[in-house]
Amino acid sequence: MGRAEERRARQRGGRRTAPRRSSGTPSVGAGDGAAGATPGGRAAARRAAARPAKARKSGIRALFTWKKILGTFFAVCLLGIGAFIVLYLMVDIPQGNAVAQRESNVYKYSDGSVLARAGTVNRESVSLDQVPKDVQHCFVAAENKTFYHDSGVDLKGTARGLLNTLRGRGTQGGSTITQQYVKNYYLDQNQTVTRKLKELVISLKVDQKYTKDQILAGYINTSYYGRGAYGIQAAAQAYYRVDARKLTVEQGAYLAALLQAPSQYDWAVASTTGKQLVKARWNYVLDNMVKQNWLDAGKRRTMTFPVPKDPRGTPGLEGQKGYLIDLANKQLEQKLMKDEGISQSQAEAEVVGRGWTITLNIDKKKQAALEKAVKAQLTSKLDPKRRKVDGDVQAGAVSVDPKTGKIVALYGGQDYFKHYTSNATRTDFQPASTFKPVILAAALESGARTQDGLPINANTIYDGTSGRQVVDHGSKVGFGPPNEDDRDYGPITVQTAMNQSVNSVFAQMGVDVGMQKVMSTAGDLGMDTKGMQAVPAQTLGSMGASPLEMAGIYATFDNHGKKVTPTIVAKAEGKSRSVTMADAIGDQVISRQAADTVTSVLTGVVDDGTARTSVAANAARDGQQVAGKTGTSDENRSAWFTGYTPDLVTSVGLFGEQPQPPYRHVSLTGATGLLPPPGRVNGGGYPAQIWAAYTFGVTDRAEFELDTNQGAAVQPPASQSPSQSPSQSPSKSASSSPPPSKSPSQSPSKSPSQSPSNSPSQSPSQSPSRTPSGGPSIENPLNPGGRQQLDSRQPAQ
After folding, report:
1. Cα dist from 753 to 245, 611, 748, 797, whole Å
2. What are φ and ψ of residue 724, in 5° steps?
3. Using CA atoms, how far apart are residues 651 and 639, in angstroms rounded to an integer?
4. What's the predicted TM-score (pTM) here?
5. pLDDT in tens, 333-390
């Protein structure tokens, strides 16, 4: 056998092929069959056996030929086209239902009694000829520049939306004005494949049946603009007190911008970021009009933002009702956005005036008690006619059950009609020293140590010298805040520093712990820290926070470290669906021991600190155990007391705000005219008095169940008293009981009464003024109730 034949034999898998027989070789007879199965016969058999495998392989190839794949593709396409044709023939343009779906919502207290009925339809249709042409173009420029030329649908965007719906990823996807009108007027906001397919078909038919002007008129007359206004006529009256026919281009651009997020972009209640976003949207609309040759570029450059007028009150929402309903609507909207993947504007349209029965967690008796306490302790003492500053005083409060997370009472302001912004949820004032417990919680949770290597706890000694420069591993960081009244405390325990709200101690502690850890802990506890800088100045509470937010943080302390997210909605029931709110009690975000230690320390603030007079010595206390913290910002622009008993947490804030636009923050000093000169309003004063009058009237005597051996609420462990003065950083532990000489012995008039006489020594790099100059990053537009980082001045108390 030649080498080539041998190689072929190996490739076939057989042995060496037998040599061919010569013609002279005897033939094999019939009886020699078995023996005749010579190597040549075996090779033939192997070749035969190999043929089926090749056949199978070629069969698979044949199954996936390009012709068959292409044919299958075309078959699927034809099937889809056929299905769409059937759907197109079966689905007709339904009767409009926009008006039929608008019904008043019913809001109830937790006991089932009716709080209010709200959401009566505020809608008046106008023909398109009553809307200036330039204003019409505002809506087209904002939502659908190709409106006058397209077929009414965005196929690519619709396909993307369908795919996202199938994947459960929400509503991302394009939508034309025609599609939005169809959704508003003929369908609902439900995010299902069926609804989206109907929207596509009906939009095509509507585009064929009606003119573009008719569709545009339908769109601007059925859209929701916020403030309970449906349609451009109601919106023009709600925001500018004019009829639609008198709207300017600038005003029309604002109304068009509103449609993206009505309540978020309402100038009267928008956060700083919300105002920045709606201005950007307003500019976007006008710039698009220039690009479309609908607006002269020169005229565009002269236009200024048209600030809307303040909202008018809606009958039935006077007093505190409007504040309660507003928060309930927002929390329900957020739930719908999360569950159904819809946008904020869609969620608002689904909630306002849609016939919901919404039961709140508000306890009718506690709500009345909170309103009574604010009136008795504060508002009855204000007289704006005699003292201008009295007209600048705003109060807000939120009361939460720490075991359930229910908001049982809320005070949003003097009257929803008179002050549209809720003081209970606003985030534009500094929480000041009420932030100090968060720093201690971060230290305890992370096992932080001083720069001398000693563990930080209630007994750790710090230097309480006013204005002492904060040190980071031997280097000064350029930040040395003064204490209240520039008072020097010398070496004191953390417990005493908390009792007396000593700024210099907590500024150093924040750096010892690490400001990143401090802000991370704040976020875990429930503060919206997005956009906040982790700088030492934040140790003084120079960010913004709301009473709602602070109540949640302290409720988490009270709940032994399990996250509490205050919730006002108990349940919401519509005609065809019900919504179950998420559990307000979340995971363990700090250890029980850390949370309980903070609580133990905060009992000292009440019994032997800045809240002693108003809370501890209050005649109505009757032995009730209380933990809490005062806070007073620099320049006296805000004053706080956030405190809690074992079964109730309440945060009270007082804010100085000019009553007229632009509503600047101002000092509270001199308010009521009843305080000793200079009349500084501090957290241990009116806020603590409101808290005590309310809390001691609605709670029963109870004791904290604490898993800790530290702090004022428990017997402190024996420890060695300091034998030397501390250095720049703490160096020794000591008893949590403050030395007698450091215990407050002054009369109430000696409590903090004025801002520090000298400004803190700090470098620009660490100053709170290094926070974003625009203020703030407040909240994602889809997340109402979010936060504002403030221009920070040093809180002193």
Report:
1. 56, 14, 10, 10
2. -150, 160
3. 11
4. 0.77
5. 999 999 888 888 888 888 988 889 999 999 999 999 999 999 999 999 999 999 999 9
